[in-house]
């Protein structure tokens, strides 16, 4: 005898969106993920942001087909009474299914192997040049190579964080620790914590940590209202100090990017030695200790302090190219305030993302992340497949009248600086910290 289905409405589901009471819907079936959020490999942030909504598209984006088998144990017995699927979600799910049938999520190619080889070669050149040469120019060249090493190693860490490198979760974790913690000094635990939140709440001013750079940067005048960061759990105060820095942010952007790694080192240490629950804390700390052993030791072999300072600053400056790229992908795209709903997954990703167009021979330099929208829509897709699926994503955006922005590296920089300048000029208006012309604000502050 068939059991009669039990239903709840979307309004009733939305009531279960607080810590200690987290429900979600996937394809109309309602799941209680309150306890699962505590042990979820991706952390609890996705649930805290999306609970109370149907999250089918986000689930499909982040999970392989094998994950569906784990849902039954979380099923509440309820179905969503007013469950509907938008036309764009139907197309997105169909596209994800087709890519899966083609095996694109498993075809990792040889890109990572080449990246790892290049990292090993660069490390050899850096160490050899520092130890065996007394030339200042050689040491400067080694510093620049080290910056490129960090860039490429970070891409490997990023890809392994999305399980796009190795065949198993354990080996992916090993790749993350080696390429992230040991080689770059950036904790993969910190990266996963912030990166998962960024993907889920792409360009939400109060939920996406990748836009929360007060008091140094503000991409929108909305920050002038002193928003509360739901990620960090504190107010992003727009005080006199923030106003001063933001007023000149279009001038300070590149200088700050040259020393941005210092902030990443600090954020890593703050997380690893905080009271917050950190997955694999001991392993992450061990990896960081490896970095803070070899890097200072390498610098100490330089003959004098001027060269040591030059070496560190030059390596940071080269690596700033990657920090700049990450900002280009999102700073000048649309922003919004509030949680993502989960019901407009495709729309939110296209709205908050900008691609960088380049020749295929430059893919190694951008690490595949020049196809930022493609990566956000299909984060499990290996980078070697992103150029292949890009035309398909373009057509889907055209079909549903959604933005697909792809600019040259130069034009993306111009657009980003223009965005920063717009907010800077607004911040300088001491008598009018929040624009009074709401129409002007809607057009010019991206959201």
UniProtKB/TrEMBL annotation:
PROSITE patterns in the record: CYTOCHROME_B5_2 (PS50255)
Record's subcellular location: Membrane
The entry's keywords: Lipid metabolism, Membrane, Oxidoreductase, Transmembrane, Transmembrane helix
Domain of life: Eukaryota
GO molecular function, one term: oxidoreductase activity, acting on paired donors, with oxidation of a pair of donors resulting in the reduction of molecular oxygen to two molecules of water
Cytochrome b5 heme-binding domain span: 5-89
Signal sequence, renumbered to the chain: none
One Gene Ontology CC term in the entry: membrane
Cited InterPro entries: Cyt_B5-like_heme/steroid-bd (IPR001199), Cyt_B5-like_heme/steroid_sf (IPR036400), FA_desaturase_dom (IPR005804), Fatty_acid_desaturase (IPR012171)
First-listed, main subcellular location of the protein, grouped into a coarse class: membrane
Transmembrane domains' residue ranges: 111-131, 137-156, 253-273, 285-302
GO biological-process terms attached to the record: lipid metabolic process
Protein family (similarity comment): Belongs to the fatty acid desaturase type 1 family.
PANTHER family: DELTA(8)-FATTY-ACID DESATURASE 2, FATTY ACID DESATURASE 2
Protein name, as recorded: Delta(8)-fatty-acid desaturase 2
The organism of origin for this protein: Cucumis melo var. makuwa
